[in-house]
Amino acid sequence: MSSIQLSVVVPVSERAQNLFDTHDSYLADLEQIDLNWEMIYVFSESNSALATEFQPKVDDRVSIITLTRNFGEGTAIQVGTSNAKGELVLTLPAYQQVAQGELKKLFEKMQESEAELVIAKRWPRIDGPTNRLQTSMFNFFIKMFSDVDFSDLGCGIRLFKKKIMEDISIYGDQHRFFPLIAHEYGVIIEEVELKQSPNESTKRLYSPGIYLRRLLDLLAIIFVTKFNKKPLRFFGLIGASTFTLGLLFLVAVTIQRYGFDVSAANRPFMLISVLMMSLGVQLVAIGLVGETIIFTHAKDIKEYHIREIVNGEKSSSEQSDAA
């Protein structure tokens, strides 16, 4: 068998609707792609029984990895990618998000562009208004907290070059924000429209705790990508603003006390202003401590992604190959 060119990673974590039908649909799509491929299914511990049922599908192209706990889809993708043999990696959800026959558009987009990561946008959307509203709100918060303009980060279909995962690490439920992290590393990203699958029209509602966790995950990603190497900018901005506001309150109380003979002893503003000034100083101090830690370990921190290296040795070898 020829060497593997494409590794398909399917994390089976939260939703695994009609996995056997989904698998057959994916196989039909992969047969349309002129690449030697393999499929890696990564099951969480909660789906271990399903992994056992799925074992008859294992052959020289399909393999199964079962994790010992529910580590999240981000970790499952990381595990699958680390075991991938292909130079290209395609992540697919354990349920159909796009119509059959659409996956080839990802490869066409990568071939016609310099993209290192191609993400899917489900369009036109044929699911209900509740699902579309959730997607719109999710993308709204992403655009509000970051400078990216991706339209459907809730879609788990991504095609990327495996080498970018040497610099980028995701875990837990960070799979939704993988393009956001890659963007901060300077990875070239393209978005392509794929028709949504009719099987995804089911109304989806989650508990308030899940929505809160996703918002906190988004805030965490924004912090670690934009301020992880410069914490003083984050904590210093908030701390300076809090200190300044508290100082203004204190000045107002002082003017009222000595200018208009208004007692300051029993006024909440006096206590609030002092507390805000103290909080501001502490936040700035946290930022300074963070900067000290970053400075100390700066040589061990890699925050860049190398796209290509061209040198004389490479050029000469290419010339000899051509000869």
Structure description:
By secondary structure, the chain is α/β, with parallel strands linked by helices. The protein folds into 2 domains: 6-226, Spore Coat Polysaccharide Biosynthesis Protein SpsA, Chain A; 231-300. It is 46% helix and 12% strand. It has 10 helices and 7 strands. Strands 3-2-1-4-6-5-7 form a 7-stranded mixed sheet, with helices on both faces. Helix 5 runs parallel beside helix 7 (208-226) and helix 8 runs antiparallel to helix 9. The longest helix is centred in the C-terminal third of the chain and has 29 residues, at 231-259. The chain is elongated and about 85 Å long. The protein starts with 5 loop residues before the first strand and ends with a helix. Mean pLDDT is 88; it is low at 314-323.
Cross-sheet strand order for the largest sheet: 3-2-1-4-6-5-7
Number of helices: 10
CATH architecture of the largest domain: Alpha-Beta Complex
Q: How much helicity do the residues have?
A: 40-55%
Q: Biggest sheet, open or closed, and with what strands and sense?
A: 7 strands, mixed
Identify the overall geometry.
elongated
Cα-to-Cα separation, first versus last residue: 29 Å
- What's the alpha carbon Rg, rounded to whole Å? 25 Å
Write down the domain tally: 2
> What is the residue-averaged pLDDT?
88
